[in-house]
Structures are given as C-alpha cells and as structure tokens.
Write a structure and sequence with these properties.
By secondary structure, this protein is α+β, with helices and mostly antiparallel strands. It has a single domain, classed as Glutaredoxin, CATH 3.40.30. The chain is built from ten helices and five strands. The longest helix is centred in the N-terminal third of the chain and has 19 residues.
Length: 207
Amino acid sequence: MRVLMRLSGSLVLVLGLWTLIWLPLVQGESSAAEVQEQALGAANAPVTIIEYASLTCPHCAEFHKTVLPQLKERFIAPGKVRLVFRDFPLDERALAASALAHCAGPDRYFGFLAVLFETQESWARSDDFASALKQLGKLGGLSEATVDACLADKALSDKILQSRLDAEQQYSVKSTPTFIIGDQVHAGLRDIDAFAELIQPLLDKAS
C-alpha cells in the first residue's frame, strides 16, 4: 500500500505514457531477457553517440526528458546521428530497473526507459523499490511472474554490470551521464546547443 501511495502522484502520467508509447506496440508480453545493443536512429548515420547512464541518475533523467527530444528532432530523425544507450548502473536500484527495461524486449525498450526516467523520483526513492518497479512493469503489460523472473535473473544482471565494467576499462567512465562522441569522452549533462557544437564538426567532416 505504501508503494502504491508513493506512486499515485504520478499514476496518471504513467498511464498516459503507457498509452502513448506502449499500447501500439503490445502484441503479447516479451520473454526477452538479454542485454542487446539498444539504439535510436539509422545504423548508417555519420555520427554515433554512445550514452552511458544510470536509471537512478537525476541528470540522466533530465537528459532523457528535456534534451533527447530535441536531439531526436534535430539530428536523429533526419538520419544524422545514431544514439546508442548503454547501462552504467550506479546502485542496486538502477541495476534492477535496467533489468526490467531489458525484459520488455527491444521493441519496447526505449518506452520503458522513458517511463522509468519520468517516474524516477517515485520508484528510486521508494522504501520498497522492487515493489514499485513491479507495479510499473505490470502497468506496462508485463505479468508479475515475468517481472519477478526478470529481477531474479542473475545472468542478466551480470551482463548489465559487465556493460559498466567495459565502460570503465574502455573509456574510463566514472560518472553518469557520460557521452562518447567521435571517440571523445564528454562527462556530464549538456544542453542541445552544446551537443550541436560537438556534432556539427563531425557531420561537416563526414560530408
């Protein structure tokens, strides 16, 4: 009951997001519980941005809520940029949330991310975050059994943690969000104009 009360303030928002993002895609719940490369944009886009993020990171949530929509409009939708999302969980709650998103399957992955970031303050601060995540999963069309299996899947969690280890070893990532743009590491949140200043020279070079 306590978890439901904490989530109730954003319940209408959550249901609205599920309706707009998920309902057109639901064709039965996904059984996919594996870490795959998750990306937005054309595979042959001239510029690739790799984002390392934690689902409990407030700055990551701010990027997804305010900057990413502008990035999609200006660069991703026109085929100029491909955004690759990679897990970098900072804590146990972020790890569980990442697992839940992967269990939704690739077609619904970014929809789950949008809801998890939008409602971050509710579930990430809950006294019982696992129950809060289960509630979100069920609202998104996953059965309780699927969510339970997902959160208990050690192999899945190990692969998510490996993503963090790879980021630390390959790019020396230490915080979130961190963006890899043109083989350069850029730590921290930035606005769309700052992204444009980094992207445009690479587009000019590729043209």
